[in-house]
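Case study: Phage tail assembly protein.
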Amino acid sequence: MAFKTEFEFELPRGYVDEEGTLHKRGVMRLATAADEILPMRDQRVQQNPSYLTIILLARVVTRLGDVRAIDTRVIEKLFTADLAFLQNLYRQINELDSTMAKVTCPKCEHEHEVDMAFLTATGTGF
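Here is what the predicted structure looks like once written out:
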């Protein structure tokens, strides 16, 4: 099975363009570190942190029906149900299913599971 980097979706309501055409089917790609970091420099995000969602989705939604370019204006015009749907999809495809790993102690050879999350509840890293 090949590693998947793009995921097809169908919006619950759909995006209506300037001509009144409804676009429901699209593609979202996996996010990169740059997708999450670079928008933090954007003045719109600095003024309103909630705008980060708009910029992130504009970066990772690569196709939406016949719309030529997906940008923040397109994402801003989505119905709230579609925005919530895309936020959910973003989390599903970009988060690990589990950060637990089976490990074996090199001294006693006891097997157990360890949480491999980069950040723990105490805020410490790896």
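For the exam, be able to explain this: Residues 119-126 have pLDDT under 50 and may be disordered.
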